Amino acid sequence: xxxxxxxxxxxxxxxxxxxxxxxxxxxxxxxxxxxxxxxxxxxxxxxxxxxxxxxxxxxxxxxxxxxxxxxxxxxxxxxxxxxxxxxxxxxxxxxxxxxxxxxxxxxxxxxxxxxxxxxxxxxxxxxxxxxxxxxxxxxxxxxxxxxxxxxxxxxxxxxxxxxxxxxxxxxxxxxxxxxxxxxxxxxxxxxxxxxxxxxxxxxxxxxxxxxxxxxxxxxxxxxxxxxxxxxxxxxxxxxxxxxxxxxxxxxxxxxxxxxxxxxxxxxxxxxxxxxxxxxxxxx
Length: 283
Known about the structure:
By secondary structure, the protein is an alpha/beta fold. The protein folds into 2 domains: about 10-90, no CATH class; about 110-280, 2-Layer Sandwich (Nucleotidyltransferase, domain 5). Helices cover about 40% and strands about 15% of the residues. It has 11 helices and 7 strands. Strands 4-3-2-5-6 form a 5-stranded mixed β-sheet, with helices on both faces. It has a two-stranded antiparallel ribbon with strand order 1-7. Helix 3 packs across helix 5 and helix 4 packs across helix 5. The termini are far apart.
């Protein structure tokens, strides 16, 4: 897909043309043992079911399933994955030192049209011999995924790239909601939002339900796509995610959208057509 020795295009230019981050191209499998990678996969699956499990509960769960593990090991793996229980601040949601956090703006807000509220989050993607991270930008009202990127680090760059793509393709929203992660409190992220006139909203500490729609996206993605494959490389993962995202946006019926797909509802509402389902009010 990318030719490192291309006579006219650098790796950076090729990555931009293919809409992938450079870190994904340079991805190499992490140095975890096969046993640890298997444990990380099991932790990820269980965390989707019980996001309130801390290190102790997760350790007990794995021991009950016959795995000889201690809390120190599970704590390290969960930190590596960016997973901590909802009553604590997740590793992927740790604000950068000196960076401002913002209040949650969606409580009681009537969300009734596309581009009124967007949300974003990061999740862990297991690979056959390593792992990646995925960020997505979603329209809150229609659940349409507007842009996404994969990376092998938790730096802010790949998040900003996804945000730039979404704004370029669909115009800026009124509000962007995220957790308080260092990627989303970084200057690069918040400055891009401010320059576009977008109001910044952030979940409360440990408030799992404040960004519930994108959390549901991760659950659906993992059970319908990620856990059914064992990708060998970043390019394989990107191709698999791209195929599923297209299916999710354009073909997968959504019960909360009256059986419509997210893309169908997004463009209906942008065209001014009033669908016959209720608007969403955020609790």
